[in-house]
Structure formats: structure tokens, C-alpha cells
Amino acid sequence: RTLPHPALVLAPCGDLANTRVQWAGSSGSVPSWKAILASGHSVATGGQGKVIAGLEGELVPIRESTAAMGIKRMNSLIEYSQAFAVSQGIQLREVRYSGDYFGRLV
């Protein structure tokens, strides 16, 4: 993956959180939206959603790690996240990366 990929994944999450879109009765934070979108993407692309009981009886979602995704999978998640945000009427902000491929400022 390239360095801009994480920013492109988090941008729709931030846009959803900032506009206070409600999901399951509450508005989510950026990390919450990242988990919701990554889980939805997994199911939409043929994976299965899994929830297990936690140590204290809470529900714990088990999902694919975004950090372990390759370029194709990450690009698919970015497209899925942007499409979901637009379907909710969210105006996506433009995301630009100010470094080169290796993170150096240009």
C-alpha cells in the first residue's frame, strides 16, 4: 500500500462522524465508523460477519484488519466507504497527501 491509503480510508469515516449520521440509533466516532465500514465491506465482498461474547459478556465484533489489507483490498474498502457516505447524502471532502510515496514532504 501507499501512504495515502490510510488517510483515504479515514476521510469518509471523519465525514460521517462530523455530520452526525445516525447508525443503529447513535452517531459514531471515526474509529466506530471505520469498524462499521470495514465490517460491511467484508460482508459485501463475500466474507462473513462474526460477533462473539467477550470476557465480560459484551459483544465483540471480529473483523478483517485494515492494517493487513493489500492494495487491491484497501482500494475496494475506500470505494465502498465513499459510496456508503454518498448514499447517506454526505458531501465528501477532498483528501490530498502532501508527501511523496515514502512520506517525505514535497
UniProtKB/TrEMBL annotation:
Alphabetical list of Gene3D superfamilies matching this protein: NinB
Transmembrane segments: none
Protein name as it appears in the record: Protein ninB
Pfam families reported in the protein's UniProt record: NinB
Native source species: Salmonella infantis
InterPro entries membership: NinB_sf (IPR036619), Recombinase_NinB (IPR008711)
